[in-house]
């Protein structure tokens, strides 16, 4: 299984970015795809997940109303649309996958991408 993130970059506060996570290597029907982030000196934290099978979605309170996760089944790709970005959103963002219905705990995810840097300037 391979997960490849893209779309990170530098943006001013209030701006937007869209991250992509292209998945390959198996059928992801029974998988959940999650986004996590890790800022320097901080623990990895949950951002959002989507269940590939039933489309169940959950967001961290810190991003609710600003971030939107979506999927394109035909492309095996998950997207993270990030609007109204804040300096505290600055982190490396990771895409992850596991066979299940979605979890806020990063320890259950078996597959991880390489991460993409998001930097929000004030």
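^ structure tokens above, recovered residues below v
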């Amino acid at each position: 299984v391979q997960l490849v993130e893209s779309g990170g970059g530098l943006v001013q506060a209030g701006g937007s970015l869209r991250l992509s996570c292209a998945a390959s290597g198996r059928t992801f029907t029974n998988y959940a795809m999650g986004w996590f982030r890790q800022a320097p000196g901080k623990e990895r934290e949950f951002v959002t997940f989507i269940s590939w099978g039933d489309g169940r979605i959950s967001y961290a309170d810190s991003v609710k109303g600003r971030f939107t996760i979506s999927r394109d089944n035909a492309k095996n790709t998950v997207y993270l649309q990030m609007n109204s970005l804040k300096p505290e959103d600055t982190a490396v963002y990771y895409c992850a996958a596991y066979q299940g219905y979605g979890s806020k705990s990063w320890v259950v995810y078996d597959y991880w991408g390489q991460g993409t840097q998001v930097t929000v300037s004030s």
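The chain is about 0% helix and 50% strand.
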